[in-house]
Structures are given as C-alpha cells and as structure tokens.
Amino acid sequence: MRVGLVQGFLSRRYLGFWEAYLEALGVEVVRANTPPSPVPFCLPVQGLLAQVEALKERGVDYLLLPDLQDGVESEKGGGQCPWLLDLEAALLRYFPGLPPVLKVPAELSERVLGRAGEVGQILTQNPMLVGRALDRVRYLLKPPPPLKTPQGSVGIVAQPYLLEDEAFREEVAKALARVDLLPYFPDLPPEKLREEGDRLLPMDLPTDRELVGMVHYLHRLGRVKGLLLVVSYACPPIPGLLRRAARRLTKPHRLVTLGEDWSEALLGLKAEMEGGGAR
C-alpha cells in the first residue's frame, strides 16, 4: 500500500503526525519534490499540482489531503476560491483520474484519533495493528508552535498556507530589507488568531477567520507601525476580503501581490510609517 503526501497547504500543522502514523501502519509513504508547474494558478497551487501529478505518475494507491476548513462549508467564504473551499473537489476537476483521497483534519487534536482509526482500517483492515500504531504516535497529537518571527515593524498578513512556507517568509524579508525594513509575522496559534478575527470581522471559514485575525492582531501591536497585506497572484477573490478588513485600519498599510514588484509600495509604506508620506 502506497500513500502520497503533499507539502504546502498547511502541511506543517498535520503532516508530522500522519506520516509517522502511516509508517507505524507499515504503509509506504511517497513524497514528490518537484518544481511548480507553469499553469495559470497562484504559486502555491502550482506547487500542489506538480506534486499531485508526480504522485499520480508514481502510482500511489491513495492521496492524503487536508481538510482546510475542518468540515465548515460556506458559499461565500474564502472569496469563493475553490482551492480553499474544497481542495479535493478542485483537484478532481483538474485531475479526473485522481487517486482515491484520504481527507484528514488540517490541525491536530485528540479528536483526530477517530479519523486516524478510520484511515488505518481502510489501509490495513487490521484493528489490532491500527490500535498499536495509534499508541505509538499519540504523543505527536499536539499542534506545532508558531514559527519564530523577526522583531520588525511591518506586520505581514497573508493566507495561512503562505505564512507557513519558509520560502515565502524569506522572499518577504528580502523585499523589506531592500528598503531597510524588517517583517513581523503573526506569532499566535491559529485558534487565537481566529478569536482575533471574530473581533474585527466575523467570517465563516477557519482560514478566513485566521486571515482577518492577523489584521486585527498585528494592528493592535505597538511594535508594528505598518501592515503589508500579501495576496497570491491570479487569485482575485482574496484581495476583496483583505480590503474589507483594511477599511478598519488606522495604521499605514499596503496590499501587494506575490510575484510582482513591491518596490514602490514598500517605499510608500516606509515613508508613511515615518510620517513623510500619504497613502
């Protein structure tokens, strides 16, 4: 039995447990480290599609995918971005011959054990093996701590799956360094950011609540003097959501698009943060 795993789309939150569990079951874990495909989607989706295509070619029996919204459904959430609303359904439209999907929670808690038991039974049909495997990996059922952040003055807001990508963080830090600024990435756990989001702009989907929560949290931090709102290119719905949240900001802010030149926007943000320019 071979199960394909994908990096990105919140994999930092759930994949450590599930990879260890699959290995404890005696299942072969297959990864695909491939460069993004040149397709007309945002960069994270390009990377996902390249991995799925490679896993499909390698003949995996199942594909492990996260439920980004924890079972919450919304007709208007996520800016109606199909990749955020239902990752499996979006992939099925792109890959009609997609391997069977094992959908698992994108975040870890004790309730994940129930789904893990179901997945184990599907893969092995051996309840005793499933029980032993769960006992071996139960200790991994705890969320990873937030990534460390530089103590900068520019708060960075972006979709959670972007902020957990080290390459994205490095790209943002380099862009800010060119104008002598440092980033400050949100350093609260996801559930705390969602609570922050509910105070600013109540939303349906967990990823939307988290995104809006970044705006509220960073805006109230004294060390943060301005905000940079980053969206993936070719993903038009998300800027509208951020613009709604940004209307409630009083600190300087800029909305920029991943893959474009931020120089003018960052210079303007810096000037306004220093009191020398208008937004």
From TrEMBL:
Superkingdom, natural source: Bacteria
Name of the protein in question: DUF2229 domain-containing protein
